[in-house]
Amino acid sequence: MANIKIPKGWEIPENQVTPESAYINRRKFIKDLGIAGAGALSLFGTSACAQESKVAKQLEPYRMQTLEAKKNKEFTVKREQTDEIVAATYNNFYEFTSSKSTVWKRVERFKTRPWEIEISGLVEKPMTLDVDDLIKQMPLEERIYRFRCVETWAMVVPWIGFPMKALLEKVQPKSEAKYVKMVTFMDPDVAPHQNNFGLPWPYVEGLTLAEAMNDLTLMVVGVYGHILPPQHGAPIRLIAPWKYGFKSIKSIVSIELTDKKPRTFWNVILPREYGFEANVNPNVPHPRWSQATEWMIGSMERHPTVIYNGYGESVAHLY
User: Fold this and answer.
1) Which domains are present in the chain?
2) Exposure winner among 9, 104, 218, 259, fewest CB in 10 A?
3) Has residue 194 got a pLDDT over 70?
4) Of 232, 220, 105, nearest to 162 (Cα)?
5) Of the candidates 53, 47, 59, which has an alpha carbon nearest to the alpha carbon of residue 88?
């Protein structure tokens, strides 16, 4: 009898994986944007090549710092992932700028070593850990995850990290702990958008303890086989792949276990638009746009959004 493989909900069919060729084929990209004329094509192509070259040069020192990580075959796709250059040039990192396409330019002065993470609150063993010591202590693995932004763009990325559960077990949550509050760095001299004093800096995000202990919840320290570059949230960030991207906080400096639901950055600013739960759901529109479809960066092609971003069999029971 032939072996039949039933795909997991998160395994992405070929037609939903961003091919590298879609990014390189700028003529189609320009046509999709409605830009016409040979002059415009030539100018745009030259500009795009120049940007690719600059980003590739920026990534060189990070690519040299490879990470030994076991590939977790439970979380993988068999086709091409989002091209690394594409993923490095389209990022939400609000501390630096609100422009996703220029984050990579703004993080040049951001130093991510040395770096410490404080873990405190309702735990038996509070501790402060150097990120590189933590990396040495944890069993790293590579997982290829879907990533879905609330703004409807998406990508497929090979993250390297360890389950958040492993870190929380290390500090031993107390019985009264119900939530995990995470805070990012605060340095307005390096991150200019933090000079906007009308916003509730530093960036804060949170999960329920049950969400944090779920096997999918990943503390990420690398990407594409090497340590994280700054625009991806170096040196350590969260990935909760069934939630919209703003829940996956970058550049974490503290983790606190608490019995109270934390007041999170976007939920404080726009509570009607950004709820605490923030699970990917095509049936619940954002107040200003539909969530029924998503587009893969690098291709501009739209695909139906999948509830819980395709991870329902692992997380639906939480809700």
Assistant:
1) 14-318 (3.90.420.10)
2) 259
3) yes
4) 220
5) 59
Whole-model pTM: value is 0.87
pLDDT of residue 79: 52
Which tens digit of pLDDT belongs to each residue from 39-96?
A: 444 444 667 888 999 999 999 999 999 999 999 999 986 556 999 999 999 999 999 9
Single-letter amino acid code for the residue at 235: P
Q: Where are the beta strands (DSSP E) in the chain?
A: 70-71, 116-121, 127-130, 141-148, 153-163, 179-184, 204-208, 218-223, 226-227, 237-239, 252-258, 293-296, 302-304
d(CA 153, CA 177): 34
Q: By percentage, how much of the chain surpasses pLDDT 70?
A: 84
**How far apart (Å, rounded) are the C-alpha atoms in residues 22 and 292?**
23
- From 17, 177, 156, 144, select the one nearest 71 (Cα to Cα): 144
